[in-house]
Amino acid sequence: MRFVVLILTAALFGCSDQTSTNPPEIEVPAVSPATLETTDASPSEPDAYYEYLWCKNGPNWSGDNFRALVKGWNEINDGLSHTPVAVFGYVPSGWEDPNFDGLWVLRWADKAAMEAGWTAYVANDSQAQLDAAHPGVLECGAETGVNRFGFNAYVPKPIPTSFDPSNGPYYLTNQLCSFNEGKSRQDLSAVLRDHFLPAVQAVAQANPSSTYWFRVEAPDFTPTPEASFNFNWVNFWQSPEEGMASSASFAATEQGAAVQALMNDVATCDPVIAQPWNGYMLRAPTNNP
To answer: For residue 60, is pLDDT > 90?
Structure first.
């Protein structure tokens, strides 16, 4: 498992590989991190609900067509009674998956908001409108547990003001992790609270310009036996250069190595090396219900 030593062999992937499948820049207003996530909730209560939709580029995909589709999708949602708090695009950086070209990521206030949002979207026949206006550009999954995956998300560390999701692409990595025998969420929470967060906060104090933050997500679906896991760990930085450098620097410290050992005792992650992504903001945070 590699929570702390995230990308020591980053050269395997490259720094900021931009392929033709990467979303083009979308014009969004600058966003304060405080509007993106709440971080003062009880540890037992999720901070947000995230959905990941697997998306494949269609025969008419292009930068211009994708920008037009995002604009159209936002216009449709502007007229709905319930919408996501924010929307993002995650694109693999330096690797490929046969199931998708990228992820359409919906950030909801909670699961109830997600259910209300999808009800409004379907009642408005929104997808048919979007497909008619932008045929063959992008096809995203909608089947829960198959190509659409929901997670209760926890944000233990406040997002630093130096992190700007509207300045894309930003950099993130993720790992799917399983608890070791006899270990549970309580063991992970204890390591986070007593060891990982103090270490991360010490680094942030020494380096105020750091943009690092992270999210821990519990699946709200039943993973297949072949791909079983208990949680998804997601790390964020403004750039791949910062992510790789900070991970290697932290891993080289005595405190970093000690925290890694404690993490390894709690859970095992696959893959060993975290998967890198380029992140883009597609819909800026709103105050809609």
So the answer is: yes
Angstrom distance (rounded) from CA 85 to CA 288: 7
Q: Which residue do the tokens 């919408």 mark? A: 83
CATH of the domain at 157: 3.30.70.100
Strands 148-154 and 213-219: antiparallel
Distances (CA, A) of 69 to 74, 78, 277: 9, 14, 22
Return the H-helix or E-strand segment holding 268. strand 267-283
Query: Would 180 be classed as within a structural domain?
Result: yes
Nearest Cα to 154, choosing from 244, 237, 230, 264? 230
**In which region does residue 17 sit, left (phi positive, over 0), alpha (psi from -120 to 50) or beta (all else)?**
beta
Please compute, for residue 187, the number of CA atoms within 13 A of its CA located in the half-sphere on the CB side.
14
Into how many domains does the chain fold? 1
Q: How far apart are CA 275 and CA 92, in angstroms?
A: 8
3-state class of 88 per DSSP?
Answer: strand
Would residue 139 count as lying in a domain? yes
3-state class (DSSP) for residue 267 = strand
pTM of the model: 0.86
d(CA 91, CA 100) in angstroms, rounded, equals 9
For 235-272, write each residue's pLDDT tens digit: 999 999 999 898 888 888 888 899 999 999 999 998 76
Structure tokens at 106: 């919906």
> Distance (Å, rounded) from C-alpha 217 to C-alpha 50?
8
pLDDT in tens, 151-207: 999 999 899 999 999 998 999 999 999 999 999 999 999 999 999 999 999 888 988
Tell me the CA distances in angstroms from 198 to 44, 105, 135, 191, 233, one per residue in order: 20, 30, 50, 10, 18
Domain that holds residue 243: 47-283
Are the CB atoms for 174 and 67 separated by under 8 Å?
Answer: no
Identity at 223, one-letter amino acid code: P
